[in-house]
Structure prediction request, 578 residues.
Amino acid sequence: MSDTLKHECGVALLRLLKPADYYRRKYGTDLYGFRKTALMLEKQHNRGQDGAGLACLHLKPEQGRPCYDLEKSVAPLPLADLLSNCSDRIQKDLSAFRGEVFLGHLRYATFGRGDLGACHPFVRESAFPNRLLLLAGNFNLTDTRDLFDELAATGHHLPSRADGAVILQVITHALEEELRRTGGARGLMPVLREAASKFDGAFTLCGMTGDGTAFVLRDANGIRPAFYRLCEESLAVASERPAIQAAFDCSTGDVCELPPGNALIVRPDGSVEIGPCLDPKPQRSCVFERIYFSRANDAEIHAERKHLGHALVPQILRALRGDLENAFVSYIPNSAQVCFHGLLEALLTIAADHRRTVRFGQVAVKDAKFRTFIADSQTRKELAMHVYDVTYGLVRPGTDTLIVLDDSIVRGTTMRTAILPILDRLAPKKIIVASSAPPILYPDCYGIDMATLRELVAFNALTDILAEDGQSDRLTAAGEEARRQLALPPEEQTNVLKTLYDGIPTHRLIRAITARLKPEGLRAELQIVYQTIDDLHRCCPRHTGDWYFTGDYPTPGGVRVVNQALVNYLENRNDRAY
Prediction:
């Protein structure tokens, strides 16, 4: 993806189900649990570069010693720093990180603080093991402010307004109430049901109490991913299936997806319960996981990304007017590579049928180590475009059409200021930018770092069209309607912004986006090709969470967020809309 996009965090939970001696005898180490959890985190390092944390719970701790070990890091390379710090403690303390339950987290700081206090796992301390709670998750709620106000009104004092602190407090309050009423006889399922029924948003929550109970809970729409592997030795949970496969050398079929709205609970005795916890809702799993977020070494994601590339072929051939001989096919590194393979395979098949060839290669090369600290803004801007370099001699100047595939186009800033200017140096006759995702029209409130409308190139293109047609008053009227709707309960609101897009033909919106993306002085003709919604659904049939493209939010809070985002835009505020 050309735009820098922060997104969903990653979690890893491991519960060892055999006595410690078992792992020492079989694997020759008393650090089996630590090493496996560290490996699951390492295989998900793409999901968090702003912070990392790891907790280890001891089921039978000595009196006078903590029942858990905890390390966190917000260093520039937080996971490496975290594991180094854990290793130092392991060398000095013969009991450190040698427990039975492990909880790890990788953080992408979409919003909020970047200090250690914002890193997971969060801890609610107590001298009573069954009241001590450690919590980590991949979540973003739309009703955090409401929950905070409700807790404050009932006498709670929260040290932070962050959704992690609020979720922790809601769960611990439900836990206290359950212990007061029943002494915990019903287990943790009713606690999770009571707490999570208040949450509007996306979440995979992982936690453990001091008595050794561990749990995982996925939101009812299944927006956030959660996978697990259960065998006689252990239970492992992660945000991505291949992380578990790599850590335990198991097949795709050995790893299960936790159903939406379900909780997985491991009791202190090691028995496991998996079952419905929240009222069922339509599954709307985030499709951006398939387009970009999760790594493509998952068998299903790999196939889906290739299908996404294949699906773009008819539009690309139309844009080429069938002239494959004078085309060169490439991609924006690196996450678009698998999608590019699907596109290329389809083009090669078509070319073979007509006894033609397809020329392809890597034209754009990303300089991952490029940095500039020059203070002069103009010089810095000129250097910034060289974050990407190009391979010379592949594109025939003045003759070839250069096709470059990208995962998606969000803000378009990097495309306009860096990628297109440097590709233009190769002097292609035409540049076709193909996006494996449809145009991103709406803000996201479930974790992706695109929460304000003014950041979206598609929305800015919409305002250009309205201004061109002398209909900017429609935008103002929509803002007034959004203000009126915000006074209603979220479940009664409708997506006001959708009414503005509905009146604009897709081809005209794409032309306006193209005009926005075209840098001043670009010599080549420019055309943007987007994936269609129908093709997206055909390629990723089980992941229908497409609200950023369609405006069809899975929760009432999502609709409230888009209305607030529209009001914020018209009031020239960059505030977070939730």
In short: The first helix runs from residue 20 to 27.
